[in-house]
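Lecture 7, part 2: worked example. A protein chain together with zinc ion.
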Amino acid sequence: MSSELRELYQEVILDHSKRPRNFHALPDANRKAEGYNPLCGDRETVYLELEGDVVKDVAFEGAGCAISTASASMMTESVKGKTRAEADALFERFHGLITGVLPQAPGLPALGKLEVFSGVREFPIRVKCATLPWHTLKAALQGGASVVSTESEGPAAESGGA
Ligand code: ZN
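Predicted complex, written out as structure tokens:
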């Protein structure tokens, strides 16, 4: 990577860490998950408004280092409007980028501006900061029972004990 490109990437990350996008709670969220990275102390809550299989809206709140905040900010921009499968594929690709093990499977989506995190692979301790919002997103996509769920999966749970 050229030093100019590296500087540009750092500027983008800095910008997103100082002025994170979609940094608020989501009143209409029907999914929510909390993530914590004890190695660094990053805490993030990801809110999702899932409509069918599509991420209609996504936002986050929390406190963390520049990398985790910028990563969450850019993640929300990247997955908005995508399907669950597309978001999963993007995470797979992103994870490959920052761990240096790029999956070569055809059909994986282009990372676009998420490429700015490619420098993170030189700082292994920061990998978890960059992936925290994505893991949290995944948890929200999979479960998210901590808030309201508009979907009823499986048999309805019976309240009350035996
Ligand atoms: Zn961190």
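Helices lie at 3-18, 66-79, 84-99, 124-142. Residues 147-162 have pLDDT under 50 and may be disordered. Keep this in mind for problem set question 3.
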